[in-house]
Write a structure and sequence with these properties.
The protein has about 400 residues and is α/β, with parallel strands linked by helices. It has helices spanning about 5-10, 40-45, 65-80, 95-105, 135-140, 160, 180-185, 245-260, 285-300, and strands spanning about 60-65, 80-85, 120-125, 150-155, 185-190, 200-205, 210-215, 215-220, 265-270, 305-310, 315-325, 325-335, 350-355, 360-370, 370-380, 385-390, 395-405. The strands form three sheets. The chain has a nine-stranded mixed beta sheet. It is globular and about 70 Å long. The termini are far apart.
């Protein structure tokens, strides 16, 4: 007996995918059919969802004196070293984990010894999660850092640029990074409205990407956009501002390289929110690393260290490559344990992994830990030291790892 088919059963399933996306396949990239309007990889789709990169409000070069004043710079020069904090992924609506890390960092300050106290806190992004309003910034940023003595500068994370929450509702900003710029890139140094009755002076960062010039280290902060994973420093779909950040990066690195060749050797740190190298639930941002490598190669300079966050844990890598006929090792540190719920990370086993980049290189996964924590970085004329501290649930801190780079 012939069965009657329902309307659903009669509908052709010719165009229905077997899996959730067409990129789940063993077919090599070169042999895959192009998905109309997207491409041949998941990352091709992600790149269509990126937000424009805001142009800087002024020259992206900052001097340390803009953050701590001329007297503060003089103290650091006299001490022969600069010290600063760094961590990302702090925004937390409830609980005390963000406050716990902030309090632990505050213990590094001594008002009687400003020259050896941290000069500032370099936030690695995701200041705010899902509430980019004055109320959200007050709760997730100004409140937990109300007693933190240092100035705070930052690069945005993916959540800082979001326009919509996970449930489709608005994050409170109509322009990507609007709230971030209101709090970190003010027209002039002062106390933003979101701080309310909390006194926290915020400087006027030139934009969402920048170069900070200090006596002992050049720091370049880049914006890696809104994707959950991976990160990008260019926006292919934005004809106006698509390459603005990468073009600036190449030019800035060339200037630093020229200064170094003239005899002024300082440490160079590059930072992005999304990590170029990562394990666990956030993978490596390989295309972003290729872009940065390209700028470094054109400028004839490589960073002495690379900082990032995004993964809510601690990960330490070493990248090995030959550059200018010299074998170099670059530490890549992921530190996203600033307060947001920590995430699983695999055990590091030191395995050698070839980088899928234009530059022939490989990296080793040296150390990892599922923990809250932060970086305490000290730079002198001849050495860069990265101390990684963990913070437990009682707010106690412990030294987890120390990485040293000798500047030659």
């Amino acid at each position: 007996m012939k069965k009657n088919l329902t309307s659903t059963q009669k509908t052709s399933t010719k165009e229905v995918l077997r899996f959730a996306h067409p990129f789940y396949t063993n077919t090599h990239l070169e042999q895959r059919p192009v998905v109309n309007g997207i491409g041949t990889r998941m990352t091709d789709y992600i790149k269509t969802q990126l937000e424009p990169i805001p142009a800087p409000q002024r020259d992206p070069a900052m001097m340390l004196s803009e953050i701590i004043g001329d007297a503060g710079v003089a103290e650091i020069e006299k001490a022969g070293a600069i010290r600063f904090h760094s961590v990302g992924d702090t925004g937390m609506e409830t609980g005390n984990t963000e406050q716990m890390v902030a309090d632990a960092m505050s213990k590094d300050y001594d008002p009687a010894k400003p020259d050896t106290s941290p000069a500032f806190f370099f936030h690695l992004g995701d200041v705010n999660y899902y509430d980019n309003t004055d109320k959200g910034y007050h709760a997730q940023f100004y409140e937990p850092y109300k007693t933190y003595p240092g100035k705070i500068i930052a690069i945005p994370g993916n959540h800082d640029g979001e326009l919509f929450k996970y449930d489709g509702s608005s994050t409170g900003q109509k322009i990507s990074l609007g709230a971030f710029q209101e709090n970190f890139c003010q027209p002039k140094t002062g106390i933003p409205s979101a701080a309310g009755t909390i006194y926290r002076e915020m400087i006027n960062q030139p934009g969402v990407f920048w170069h900070l010039n200090t006596p002992f280290v050049d720091i370049i902060g880049l914006y890696s956009n809104v994707a959950e994973n991976p990160g990008y420093i260019t926006v292919k779909s934005d004809e106006v501002n698509g390459n603005i950040q990468k073009d600036w990066l190449t030019k800035t690195l060339a200037n630093i390289s020229a200064t170094r060749e003239a005899g002024q050797r300082k440490a160079l740190i590059i930072a992005t929110h999304h990590p170029p190298l990562s394990s666990g639930n956030h993978s490596s941002s390989t295309e972003m690393l290729i872009d940065i490598d390209d700028s470094c190669t054109k400028a004839n300079i490589m960073p002495d260290a690379f900082l990032s966050a995004h993964s809510h844990n601690i990960q330490c890598y070493t990248r090995y490559l030959s550059f200018n006929n010299k074998d170099i090792q670059i530490p890549f540190v992921v530190c996203g344990g600033g307060g947001r719920t920590i995430q699983h990370v695999p055990d590091a086993d030191g395995t050698r992994i070839n980088d899928q980049t234009v530059i022939k290189s490989y990296h080793t996964f040296d150390k990892s830990l599922k923990s809250y924590g932060y970086l305490d970085i000290i730079v002198t004329s001849d050495k860069l030291t990265i101390n990684i501290f963990t913070v437990d649930n009682q707010g106690n801190r412990s030294l987890f790892n120390t990485i040293q780079v000798h500047l030659t």
